[in-house]
Amino acid sequence: MAPLNVGIIGTGIFATDRHLPSYQEMPDKFKVVAAFNRTKSKAVAFGEKAGLSKDKVYDDLAGIVNDPEVQMLDMLLPAQFNLDTVKRAIEAGKPVLLEKPIAATMAQAREIVKLADSVDTPIGIAENWLYLPCIDVARPLLEKIGPIVAFTHNSTGPFVTQNKYLSTSWRQNPEHIGGFLSDGGVHQLALVTELVGEIASVSALTRQVRKESGTVDIVFSTVEMRNSDIIGTFTYGSAFGATDKSVFLKIYGKNGTVVVELSDKKKPVVKARFGSTAEEGSEEEIHSVPLDDTFGVNAEFLNFHDTIVKKDKNVFKSTPRVAFHHLACVAAFLESSEKNGDHVKVESI
Ligand SMILES: NC(=O)c1ccc[n+]([C@@H]2O[C@H](COP(=O)([O-])OP(=O)(O)OC[C@H]3O[C@@H](n4cnc5c(N)ncnc54)[C@H](OP(=O)(O)O)[C@@H]3O)[C@@H](O)[C@H]2O)c1
């Protein structure tokens, strides 16, 4: 089969640094054939990297959406533009992959889920953490430590002034709820929910530590899971003073513990200990995780390719419904914090 022709909507940092290289690494599956950007000079520079002819570089959205050569849209604009893009893609009958979070508000997220449910056109949310190889390594170990009773997720780090993402104006003046808590937090929530299940309710406190964040930038919470007795804590924020970068998910069972440790991006690792008591406890097992430099993006793209080829939207893992839950958790954190930590239900759809 010929590669799928991709039209890129929004040629910013992540389109250039990750999406384009990923497509170029899989030339039998994808070919970037067109690009759109509001600021045309950036689309032109992107077009040169992608080897596009000048007539395939757009500064009007309708132009790229309706380009007959484009078979699939890949959209990397701030989340407040996701709903409009979904409507345009559905009208054109073209599959669209949208960058996370699913939307800027819960109202928009609800509408995207309903629209996606109403059509056969595949609409995906690019939550690449759902595709991290550590998930496949951890899953069989979890079966051995069960029943799971609790977990703690911690993703914390120092504030980095030279962060290229932080300097984008739409992140500094976020229209998306929770600012960095939804921008990066949905990745963490994807990992937690993929391994431990959906969150039913939260008690959370948020704070804004850095004015550069535009809104609250740390959350400390306790959570209850849906359809189980599992409880946990979820802590997120990279707005602190000097500290190490720490990303780990520790899952406690009645028969052991599993730790997914992503603090060093280049050395992801999963650790496990088995036994129902201290006396019966095994030595710690250390399972290496295959290194994925794309952090799940290539696997996510392949899953979307498969979805389009099979003409079955259900083949795609990262659906709007799945991504809705992650944003709904952030919305619940914010609401709980406004109520000084009262327990708040996570909206379901
Ligand atoms: N999955 C991941 O790990 C990951 C990592 C990074 C980013 N992302 C996602 O990728 C997307 C792009 O992020 P980025 O870091 O690449 O940001 P970026 O470089 O700032 O790119 C943002 C894009 O949106 C456009 N844009 C910004 N504000 C706009 C406005 N008010 N009206 C119309 N267009 C506007 C920009 O156009 P101009 O060039 O004209 O400003 C640019 O095309 C976001 O959805 C982000 O969440 C995902």
Automatic annotation (TrEMBL):
GO terms for biological process: NADPH regeneration. Residues 143-345 form the Gfo/Idh/MocA-like oxidoreductase C-terminal domain. Gene3D superfamilies: Dihydrodipicolinate Reductase, domain 2 (3.30.360.10), NAD(P)-binding Rossmann-like Domain (3.40.50.720). Residues 4-119 form the Gfo/Idh/MocA-like oxidoreductase N-terminal domain. GO terms for molecular function: nucleotide binding; oxidoreductase activity. It holds the Pfam family GFO_IDH_MocA. One of its GO terms (cellular component) is cytoplasm. This is Uncharacterized protein ymr315W. It comes from Nakaseomyces delphensis.
